[in-house]
Write a structure and sequence with these properties.
The complex is a heterodimer of chains A (301) and B (230). Chain A is an all-alpha fold and 301 residues long. Chain A has one domain (7-289): 2-methylcitrate dehydratase PrpD, CATH 1.10.4100. Chain A has helices at residues 7-16, 20-32, 36-57, 72-81, 89-106, 122-134, 138-158, 163-166, 172-186, 191-203, 221-240, 249-262, 279-289, and one strand at residues 110-112. The termini of chain A are far apart. Chain B is α+β, with helices and mostly antiparallel strands. In chain B, helix 3 (60-68) packs parallel to helix 4. The chains are: A mainly alpha (301), B alpha+beta (230).
């Protein structure tokens, strides 16, 4: 049985007066035929790695071999601590954390694919920041992560979570929708509000191209993690304020699948279109070839 | 892992930046190590397609070395793989190759001990999300995903060998999922690959080695073993 709709979970949550996170822990216990204790322990391990990736990411100062990334998280975080901010301190913090994780991943740090490595900054940053704002317990954080799982599962079953199949909407869009649901759970919202936040978020990511410069998970991926983390917090707040998505979540996922199938392969991770094909994008590709000490030898075959 | 688990979406824990070009490359390197059966010392790595273009930015070279040293996809040592390679006495050369259009754009060929008697080679594809498919082992076409334990055997082309092999496997009550056997071109040998459902006991390896004409027995554990949450 695949998880291809949020509806049975929403019904169960409503009937049993439970949060989405609680329902998803019960779901995972059934799937793994394991105890709630073991399931929660596994998620705590995931969370530990996420926290470490944030802490390491915001310290990075070194630029990557391509020269396209490194040190931006630190800059943004510094701005959140000093002087005026147009977007607000929490927005700067969440963006810095998401970009930090993405930079850490880019420098071969250990991260949690959520759902992919390229989109690995959004869920940790949003959960971390939402928990900070709400002064939430670790228990609430773990429930938030479980709640995010339902959103990812439905996207994966009904569409895709791969940029090469459905463009970046399927990677960063899904991660931001997952994060929005987690933030609502952490803020004490209902299952319905969590899924509604995910719907609002995912709608705003539809059609995103996957056009990485030089084929690397850096431009536009790293900054996009920060932008989408900020949006995910906003989607959560919108949902908690009572704003409703006119299109229900399950149908937004179908729309993502529809759009994904219409997108040309040039903007599906092949680096044959969009930003990868710009003058500067091509120059980065050439520059990367001559960096580093190891060179590829010519093969006679 | 089952399709319905949230840990498919929150995981794996891995060294970045790319599930296909980093995590997948670790698993391809580890496959070559498992096939060779011990720590390889001389290795030639051939990058095909997008690996040839993007290996540097994705750290695919370090990932392959990490795999050849037996590291898992979440091992922090991968970042400094060159240092650990030196300690292990692993000499490695990286080359660019055009394998041809038949091969997946994310393919890698690894040759261990080129030109020596115990040389082995493997061609594998990284198909996304860290998943790989082993396409070729020493000229022999395969379709091993590593999601199950796989037994790889090189043996003399004798009548009845295959039934002895399957007999040995079923004597331990193990379920065979797939079995493929074919002559190795230009050699009086065959290569047989068998995917089994359960984890095999150590005694199976001993029993398989005793079969007449058996030249190589390798048991590849599931490639994701220890890398998933459940």
């Amino acid at each position: 049985m695949t998880v291809d709709s949020v509806l049975p979970f929403l019904e169960k949550a409503k009937k049993e007066e439970k949060s989405l996170g609680e329902i998803m822990i019960e779901h995972e216990v059934a799937v793994q035929e394991s105890s709630a204790k073991d399931i929660v322990f596994a998620m705590k391990r995931i969370w530990e790695v996420m926290v470490k990736s944030i802490e390491e990411g915001i310290k990075i100062t070194k630029r990557s071999p391509s020269g396209m990334s490194g040190g931006d998280a630190k800059k943004i975080l510094a701005k959140s601590k000093k002087g005026k901010s147009l977007a607000g301190k929490n927005i700067l913090k969440v963006a810095a954390r998401a970009i930090g994780v993405a930079e850490y991943s880019s420098s071969m740090g250990v991260i949690v694919a959520s759902p992919t490595a390229g989109s690995s900054g959004v869920v940790p940053a949003v959960v971390y920041t939402a928990a900070e704002i709400c002064d939430a317990s670790e228990e609430a954080i773990i429930k938030g992560l479980f709640a995010s799982g339902l959103i990812g599962l439905v996207c994966d079953a009904k569409a895709s979570t791969s940029g090469s199949e459905h463009g970046c909407q399927a990677e960063i869009g899904v991660s931001a929708a997952m994060a929005a649901a987690a933030a609502v759970e952490i803020a004490g919202g209902t299952a319905e509000e969590a899924v509604n936040a995910a719907a609002i978020m995912l709608k705003n990511s539809l059609g995103l191209a996957c056009d990485p410069v030089a084929g690397l998970v850096e431009t536009p991926c790293i900054k996009r993690n920060g932008m989408m983390a900020a949006e995910a917090l906003l989607a959560a707040d919108m949902s908690l304020s009572g704003v409703k998505s006119n299109i229900p979540f399950d149908e937004v996922v179908i729309a993502m699948d529809d759009i994904g199938q219409m997108m040309p392969c040039e903007i599906k991770e092949t680096s044959e279109g969009g930003l990868a094909k710009t003058k500067t994008g091509k120059a980065y590709k050439i520059r990367l070839r001559s960096s580093g000490t190891r060179k590829l030898e010519k093969s006679e075959d | 892992m089952t399709d319905e688990s949230v840990f498919r979406l929150l995981g794996p824990i891995m060294v970045g930046p790319s599930s296909s070009h980093t995590a997948g490359a670790v698993r391809i390197g580890r496959t070559a190590r498992l096939l060779y059966g011990k720590q390889p010392e001389e290795v030639d790595v051939y990058f095909h397609g997008s690996f040839a273009d993007t290996w540097r930015g994705h750290g695919s070279d370090k990932a392959i070395i990490g795999g050849l040293l037996g590291f898992k996809t979440f091992d922090e040592r991968i970042k400094e793989a060159d240092k650990y390679a030196k300690e292990a006495g692993l000499k490695i050369r990286f080359k660019k190759i055009k394998l041809g259009k038949r091969y997946h754009p994310n393919s890698i060929k690894i040759v261990v001990n080129e030109g020596k008697d115990d040389s082995i080679y493997v061609i594998a594809e990284s198909v996304g999300g860290g998943d790989i498919v082993i396409r070729e082992i020493m000229g022999f076409k395969t379709e091993i995903t590593g999601s199950n334990e796989t037994i790889i055997l090189r043996h003399g082309d004798l009548v009845g060998t295959l039934s002895k092999i399957t007999g040995a496997i079923s004597s331990f009550n193990l379920n065979i999922l797939t079995i493929r056997s074919k002559d190795i071109p230009k050699k009086d040998e065959a290569l047989t690959t068998i995917e089994i459902e359960e984890k095999s006991p150590k005694e199976l390896e001993t029993k398989l080695k005793k079969i007449d004409g058996m030249k190589m027995v390798r048991i590849l554990p599931s490639l994701t073993e220890g890398e998933e949450m459940f």
